[in-house]
Amino acid sequence: MVKVVVYKSNGNVEERVFSKKNVTLKEMQEIVGGYIEFVYLLKDNLVMVVNEDGKITGLPFNAKATQLVKECNINDIIVGDVLVINQSLIK
Fold first, then answer.
1. Residue 70: φ, ψ to 5°
2. Domain ranges of the chain
3. pLDDT of 62-91, one tens digit each?
4. Which residues contact 38 (CB under 8 A, 6 or more apart)?
5. Residue in 39, 53, 46, 37 with CA at minimum distance from that of residue 4
6. What are the angstrom distances between the C-alpha of 80 and each of 44, 48, 85?
7. Helix or strand holding residue 28 (H, E)
8. N or C: which end of the chain has fewer CB within 10 A?
């Protein structure tokens, strides 16, 4: 079983559970709504999965996800729904 945290652009944060050992590319794409890009958070082996084209396509600002990357000393703005997962659980 795999647990991930989804930071929605509307401010909600939810936990999702997958019954398998890994999260697939297709599942990550469904959560972020398109092609994916990784933002490595440099703590606890975590990675944030974001929509690769989110800024270009005008996805809404994600305040909670942006705050999380700033806490990891990453100067970026995050848009759209994202998921945070341990790197070892990505297939």
1. -65, -35
2. 2-89
3. 999 999 999 999 999 999 999 999 888 776
4. 47, 48, 49, 50
5. 46
6. 23, 12, 16
7. helix 25-32
8. N
